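User: Hey, quick favor. My workstation is busy. Could you predict this chain's structure for me?
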Amino acid sequence: MIECFSIDILKQHNITEVSSLFSALDSDSKIAFSRWLDVDKVERLKYLRILANFHTKLVELAGNELLIRFHQTITHKLARYQFMYPYDQSSFEKSQKEHDQIAELIKVGDFRGAKKYLKNHTKPFYALLQIKLREGKKEVSTDK
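Assistant: No problem, here it is.
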């Protein structure tokens, strides 16, 4: 929601300069893990930080301080769920391509396409988040 609103602001101000997004992607593309589960936890955290950096840069591009601060307050909370995401080599590659496509769409002024792509990109994470929240509720109710 926050990132889609950021894209709306980019559209409103016709901002298509996305070099900061491409910088985040450059770091992202240097990561290549064969299997997520085989990667050291510290390396996982580094990679997740790189992924989160792309999304942070997207929000920052909008230049809306309230939006940026709100995004900062939830980023750390979302990180624990991102860490649970079952990444493998194919999902890394897919994620990297999706980030690149979102940046490219903004760069050419296709804000509607960027929002659509972003929504599709975040659907699996949102689905995981819902599952984990349901599992947490079940654990709480069975502990009583």
